[in-house]
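Following up on my earlier message about cobalt (II) ion. Here are the inputs again, as you asked, copied directly from the submission form:
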Amino acid sequence: MKPFEKLLLENKAWAREKIQNDPEYFNRLANLQTPEFLWIGCSDSRVPANEITGTEPGEIFVHRNIANMVVHTDLNLLSVLDYAVHHLKVKHVIVCGHYGCGGVKAALTHHNLGIINKWLRNIKDVFRYHESELNQIDDEAQKLNRLVELNVEEQVMNLAKTSIIQKAWKYENRPYLHGWVYGLANGIIKPVYEMKPGSHLDPIYEYDDL
Ligand code: CO
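Thanks, got it. Here's what our run produced:
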C-alpha cells in the first residue's frame, strides 16, 4: 500500500467509527458550523489545532501559515479573519506559536531562502523591535524561544491593528485575543499574552470611523 492510500483507508475507518458512536454526527456537522474559536497557528505538522486542544471538527476555525503570522497584506489571512469575526462571530481568536519553531529559527539566520525571505522578513522585524532584550540572551535555544513568545505577542497586536477586530470590539465587545505558545517537548500550551475587547494600542493604529 502506498503511503497516501493508507490515509484514505484510515479516513474510511474514522468515518465508520464516528457514525457508530453517533449516527447523526455528519448530518449535524454538514448543516451547521458555529465555532467559538479562530485559531491562527504554525503550519508545523506537530501542532494540529484540534488534537492538542481536545476539540472536535466544528469547534475551531483554523488558519495556519509558517510561524503563525498576521501579515496585513495577506489576503488569505484577512479573509479568514473577516469571515470568522463578522460571519461566524467567533468569541476568541488564538494565535498559537510553538517553541523550537523552524520559521522563527530561520529568521534568526542570514540564509537566503528565496521567496520565503519575504515572509521571514516580518519575523526579523519582530527581532528588531526587541533586539536589546534578545541580545542579552546568550543561549541560542533560549533566544529562539523568547523570540517565539515575542512573535506571538506582536501577531496578537497585529490583529488588534486591523479594522476587522476594532469594529467587532466597538460594536459587539468581542473577540478576546489570545497569544499562546505550545511546547513540542511536553505538549503543554503556555498563554503568554492577551488582549480583551476594547484594549488600546498606540493611538496611531486606532480607527475612529468604523
Ligand atoms: Co513553526
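One observation from looking it over: The two ends are 56 Å apart (CA to CA). Hope that helps, and feel free to reply on this thread.
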